[in-house]
Amino acid sequence: MHVQEQSGPGDTRFFVSAGPFDAAELARCAGAELRGSDAALDGAARFSGIAPLQSAGAGQVSFLDNRRYLPLLEKTGAGAVIVAPAFVDKVPAHAIALVSKTPYLAWARVASRFYPAPPVDPGIHPTAIVGDGAVVDPSAAIGAFSVIGARVRIGAGVCIGTHVTVGDGVEIGARSRIGSHVCLSHALLGERVTLLPGVRIGQEGFGFAVGPDGFETVPQLGRVILEDGVEVGANSTIDRGSIRDTLIGAGSRLDNLVQIGHNARLGRCCIVVSQAGISGSTELGDFVTVAAQAGLIGHIKIGDKARIGAQCGVMSDVEAGADVIGSPAMPFREFFRNVAFLRRLAKKPAQDRGREKDD
Amino acid sequence: MHVQEQSGPGDTRFFVSAGPFDAAELARCAGAELRGSDAALDGAARFSGIAPLQSAGAGQVSFLDNRRYLPLLEKTGAGAVIVAPAFVDKVPAHAIALVSKTPYLAWARVASRFYPAPPVDPGIHPTAIVGDGAVVDPSAAIGAFSVIGARVRIGAGVCIGTHVTVGDGVEIGARSRIGSHVCLSHALLGERVTLLPGVRIGQEGFGFAVGPDGFETVPQLGRVILEDGVEVGANSTIDRGSIRDTLIGAGSRLDNLVQIGHNARLGRCCIVVSQAGISGSTELGDFVTVAAQAGLIGHIKIGDKARIGAQCGVMSDVEAGADVIGSPAMPFREFFRNVAFLRRLAKKPAQDRGREKDD
Amino acid sequence: MHVQEQSGPGDTRFFVSAGPFDAAELARCAGAELRGSDAALDGAARFSGIAPLQSAGAGQVSFLDNRRYLPLLEKTGAGAVIVAPAFVDKVPAHAIALVSKTPYLAWARVASRFYPAPPVDPGIHPTAIVGDGAVVDPSAAIGAFSVIGARVRIGAGVCIGTHVTVGDGVEIGARSRIGSHVCLSHALLGERVTLLPGVRIGQEGFGFAVGPDGFETVPQLGRVILEDGVEVGANSTIDRGSIRDTLIGAGSRLDNLVQIGHNARLGRCCIVVSQAGISGSTELGDFVTVAAQAGLIGHIKIGDKARIGAQCGVMSDVEAGADVIGSPAMPFREFFRNVAFLRRLAKKPAQDRGREKDD
């Protein structure tokens, strides 16, 4: 079997397109202003899909979000391009500009117009097992070989994939999507929660005391609460609380392979990027960003809108709005000053470095 | 569906309480001394559960382990509190003090008295598949859609969850608990081993040689041995040995998303915290702690009771009892001295920093 | 159940040996030269298996690859040892030397001769579900409870484990091996692709725009392409592209718990070690090595044969052939020079350090 890359996104083996749409419809859904030559704006233009700048054709929409790709804009064959006002002059004459102050958001909406989330096909697969007293909304879907525990409540339009295990008593709010191989226990989920494949929610956290004959387990008696709109990436793990709840605030997004310890609390609209870890009982405010591979020790507080850099090691509280990086964490400016200092040092001739050694 | 947090642990949708108990019974199981006013010690007091200091009521037991939460102790409404001798005077007059030199251990035991591990409901789920020659103790439980290979041996009281795959020839000791979606092969497990959901044990390690046409796989012919009482967190991975065994010593506890490479050996009662990684053929003594996100290269030795700090990068042997941190690893004291030096430096005025550049 | 370690690899509960072989056959398959005393080379010697130096007996083959284990070579009881030319004199007189300039490669081939990959037992397990229009080669095997989507194509000799989910339209090339609990969607796999248990391929990447009411998802419309011979370790995650494809080049090997972001591209024969992460849209050339726990930010380029050290944090392009380490990444030499400088500093007496503070 030969694997060949194709020019654009939306391979029809995997995606179903809702188009075509005309420029006015795209501008409307994008909240964008239409700009271009009379010829380009001729109402007859219809768009069947989307594509990156370098491969888009006359029937496709593209976008520029990152200045780094500006050279591609000038040469694009796209029939329409979403751009920020600053770049509208760089759009080729043959193309329509869809001008937006938030081009990436406009792009999200145009792409979603062409490729809306697939509809849920209601029903419980005949191989799925549903426990006693479970209430499954008739508009929900449950995939093959999934196991739904006793007294579980599953809301309207929920879609549960294949090989999912939902423990007794769990509640899943309307329009949530639970990916394949998810394991979910001791948890309450709001509406529109998305769990990607392999997520583990609600297992016991890492809690034990040192006893005379080794470690003794501390029962983990809290829950996991995922508020409305929370999304969790593939193979991430969220432990249930030990004595209070582990809580992820509304709209927060966690990437793949993220670890959230017991009793941790994230505010609203936090971002936790891949392979980052938040230890037990640590609390994040709203709109906190934790970049990839960062680690936060337990029992600390991170203020609203703080940004924790990639690979950062946070050992103490971080103020609201602060930007920190490094291990241990320090302000961005300090970190890069230290880096520059050490870099200068490394360039000194060897004899100077020898003197230092002896002074 | 609206998700609401409740005041205490032990949500009856998820947990079954064994109480109530009187103070004497709690003191006995905690190995604690009873202290308090005559009124408080009046034998009539009975306790129905546990709760954190800030929300506990008269019928609940709480505890203080971390000095940081001392202000909460003085205001608690708990009927009984487990504390260290140093804090007994801070327990409010209305409450009984359960005084222990090891309050967290006492707490573990009291909490376990209220919430013992749920009993195993013996039997093989009708959808489970059990291979030829497998021996499953009649007191063991095997969950829905699990697949048990040929010649597997499963001991008394073992509980295997849903969607588990156990490869041919694996042995699982008495009272072990295997979580949902675990995949287990080429492995021998002792008694009371706990694997949380999504653990991968015994897959081939990362072994290959460079050949003329790319990498060539080196067969991985060892096993994984988990001794008695080992616990492994969600989605962690332990590769089987290549030419000898990968071995985790009795009582050791691994957190979520931990990686253990082929041929690695951990001694007894080691702790490996979330997202840490131990590379192939590295050996840990007994009672070693590896904190979160630390990484150890291959073929090194870590002495008994050494402590490896969070995000530490260990590139060479570590002596018994040593505390190291940083990447590359260095003694704790040296690390924090370096940090302080660089911090001071960063605060120097710009002209001083300019001089340095030219000297 | 008592767990006991045995002396050598190849426990017959888990592995089937193809031997015995004589020395000439081993030399032939290893591409090695036979050396030794007349007695040792006597054609009657036959070998039944392999073992490490310290436990091998007269009927077993061993090898020396790492100079660190030289003392074990001189005392080994092995009947034959694979060694580099430099160490042939250290092989005991009773043993045959199998001399190779690439002893680890020779070992890979000898070990594979004794323990070839188990043959695939063709057939679809009666509990597996195969979707409409799927084409499964009659020589392929599909395990219990696996779910194969509509229009999936599965090539000759493919082996799919238990509890696997393959999404609609996926293609899997000949002789690929898909481990248990793998979830695979929006993907095209070449031939001889190996996915270890728990791998997640093709889920939506971490893509969203900031809207007025929180984050809005950007549809992820690309695919994942794994070229011939790619191997992916347990519980690793590879997100599908957003607007182009995520691509892993032929022969590349990823270890456990690795994260690959959307639109990332790896060239041929790249190595990505455990817990490393490559962010979205980053591109690696051919033969790039990314060591354990390293992290690469998005939208950068790494040249051919570059080597990224363990825990390295790469924030900008890396030239072909460069060796970098540290966070942020710097050349190996510079990194270790900085480390040495700080180490020297930490050893200065306190009064000197005081002077620095005041100068």
UniProtKB/TrEMBL annotation, chains A, B, C:
Entry's EC annotation: 2.3.1.191
> Which pathway does UniProt place it in?
Bacterial outer membrane biogenesis; LPS lipid A biosynthesis
Which catalytic reaction applies to this protein?
Answer: a UDP-3-O-[(3R)-3-hydroxyacyl]-alpha-D-glucosamine + a (3R)-hydroxyacyl-[ACP] = a UDP-2-N,3-O-bis[(3R)-3-hydroxyacyl]-alpha-D-glucosamine + holo-[ACP] + H(+)
Among CDD domains, the record links this protein to:
LbH_LpxD
InterPro entries per UniProt: Hexapep_transf_CS, LpxD, Trimer_LpxA-like_sf, UDP_GlcNAc_AcTrfase_non-rep
Q: Taking every annotated instance into account, which residue ranges of this chain make up the domain UDP-3-O-[3-hydroxymyristoyl] glucosamine N-acyltransferase non-repeat region? A: 48-111
The positions flagged as active site in the entry are 262
Keyword set for this entry? Acyltransferase, Lipid A biosynthesis, Lipid biosynthesis, Lipid metabolism, Repeat, Transferase
Q: Does the keyword Lipid metabolism apply?
A: yes
Q: What domain of life?
A: Bacteria
Q: Which PROSITE patterns match?
A: HEXAPEP_TRANSFERASES
Q: What class of enzyme is it?
A: transferase
Family assignment from sequence similarity:
Belongs to the transferase hexapeptide repeat family. LpxD subfamily.
Q: What does this protein do?
A: Catalyzes the N-acylation of UDP-3-O-acylglucosamine using 3-hydroxyacyl-ACP as the acyl donor. Is involved in the biosynthesis of lipid A, a phosphorylated glycolipid that anchors the lipopolysaccharide to the outer membrane of the cell.
Q: Kindly state the subunit structure of this protein.
A: Homotrimer.
Q: Which HAMAP family match?
A: LpxD
What protein name applies here? UDP-3-O-acylglucosamine N-acyltransferase
Name its species: Novacetimonas pomaceti
Q: What is the lineage of its organism?
A: Bacteria, Pseudomonadati, Pseudomonadota, Alphaproteobacteria, Acetobacterales
Please name the gene that encodes this protein.
lpxD
